[in-house]
């Protein structure tokens, strides 16, 4: 069976934690370190670091893309542990999609590129 919407195999050679692809608007960034892998709160902090246009006042909804292409909430450590377990078994990257409730898609796209000179990694 083909996995729809599942990122190709990406492995972090420094640990057993899969790479993490984070998407806001149409911009996708890669987190290759594993500093986020034990805590949903740390993951939220890392997301705010790689997308500095997200302010502390903004509500951020983090979802991961499962093997069927569905967006599943990632709101606590148990959710993160489950997501990591599944992507390890599938041997693929963890694909995360950021939602900013109340923010238009156009504004979200602008936020995705704020704080970087080229729209790439800060």
From TrEMBL:
CDD domains: PB1. SUPFAM superfamilies: CAD & PB1 domains. Pfam families: PB1. Residues 7-95 form the PB1 domain. This is PB1 domain-containing protein.
């Amino acid at each position: 069976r083909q996995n729809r919407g599942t990122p190709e195999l990406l492995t972090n050679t420094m640990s057993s934690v899969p790479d993490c692809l984070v998407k806001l608007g149409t911009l996708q960034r890669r987190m290759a370190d594993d500093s986020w892998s034990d805590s949903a709160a740390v993951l939220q902090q890392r997301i705010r670091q790689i997308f500095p246009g997200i302010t502390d006042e903004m509500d951020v909804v983090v979802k991961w893309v499962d093997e069927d292409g569905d967006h599943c909430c990632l709101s606590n450590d148990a959710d993160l542990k489950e997501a990591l377990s599944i992507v390890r078994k599938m041997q693929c990257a963890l694909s995360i999609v950021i939602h900013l409730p109340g923010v238009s898609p156009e504004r979200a796209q602008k936020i995705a590129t704020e704080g970087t000179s080229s729209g790439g990694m800060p």
